[in-house]
Amino acid sequence: MTFTPDHFNVWMEIPVSDLDKAVSFYNDVFKTELRRVTDMGPNEIAIFPAKEQGGVAGHLYPGKPAPKGSGPTIHLACPDSLEATMERFAKAGGEVVSDPVPIPAGRFAYGLDPDGNSIGMFAA
């Protein structure tokens, strides 16, 4: 029997060295409002919003990021064009490390956030 859930990815966590700076970076780049939460564990976290209650999202947490570019890649939805998101990403202190890559579902580009986390910016 093969396990095939509705959503194989159920949550993601991105470790950051400075939660305040990281929240500002992700809010600016993805034109969103991460929600700060203090009662879900030992540390304060900042949750990415999802349209529906229980939607697949994730959070930032104070932690030790993997060495620059060596951790897993998290792909995040662009709020507008891929190029506009890439421009904000670089302006906010991230490093865009690829040109746009076309795939059947849309396009994406790779970047490194200020902590060196590998982030995919995806536009359908």
From TrEMBL:
Pfam families: Glyoxalase. Residues 4-124 form the VOC domain. This is VOC family protein. CDD domains: SgaA_N_like (cd07247). InterPro entries: Anthracycline_SecMetBiosynth (IPR052164), Glyas_Bleomycin-R_OHBP_Dase (IPR029068), Glyas_Fos-R_dOase_dom (IPR004360), VOC_core (IPR037523). PANTHER family: GLYOXALASE-RELATED, VOC DOMAIN-CONTAINING PROTEIN. Signal peptide: none annotated. Coiled coil: none annotated.
